[in-house]
Amino acid sequence: MNKTSTPSIDSIERQWYLVDAQDQTLGRLATEVASILRGKNKPTFTPHLDTGDFVVVVNAEKIRVTGNKAEQKLYRRHSGRPGGMKVETFNALKNRLPERIVEKAIKGMLPHNALGRQLFRKLKVYRGSEHPHAAQKPQALTINSSSGLVK
What is the pLDDT of residues 114-144, one digit of tens each? Predict the structure, then answer.
């Protein structure tokens, strides 16, 4: 009988990927990025370990959604105080903080526990095409809307 091998923390190879969100559909981009953050694209994937890679998403302000979501989709946040709920539409949040839209979509697709919080720290989202991670030499990763990842 074969034994299941668990990779040691030292043996996990971390890559940096650069994803351009221009004209990408929000949900399709988020599923692929969440999969990379978890490490599901690697043969050493282990559900309870952080085996994933770092992802830098640029051009967050150019993300798009289908249908009427631009006017109808709502983002809620609460300050914790009585009457402290703030509600904002997709378009309003896109004008104010487009990075938050991408972050929230990807965070919702990660595990909702300590592992998910650790994975979320490896996501970097920026407005515009400039980012401060050039020293890590991220590989460009194009996400094809029909079939998923293309390296």
Answer: 999 999 999 999 999 999 999 999 999 998 8
| Alpha-carbon gap, residue 66 to 25, rounded angstroms | 7
134-37-8 Cα angle (round to 5):
100
In total, the chain counts a number of residues equal to: 151
* Residue 44 structural domain: 14-64+93-150
Instruction: Report the CATH number that the domain containing residue 98 is assigned in CATH.
Output: 3.90.1180.10
pLDDT digits (tens, 9 = 90+) for 66-87: 999 999 999 999 999 999 999 9
Domains in the chain, number: 1
Q: Which residues pair with 16 in a beta bridge?
A: 54
- The pLDDT value recorded for residue 145 is 64
Task: Tell me 96's DSSP state.
Answer: H
> CB of 56 within 8 A of CB of 96?
no
Element (H, E) at 88: strand 85-89
The DSSP bridge pattern shows strands 148-150 and 139-144 to be antiparallel
Distance between CA atoms of 64 and 70, rounded to whole angstroms? 8
Residue that is written with structure tokens 């407005």 in the block: 127
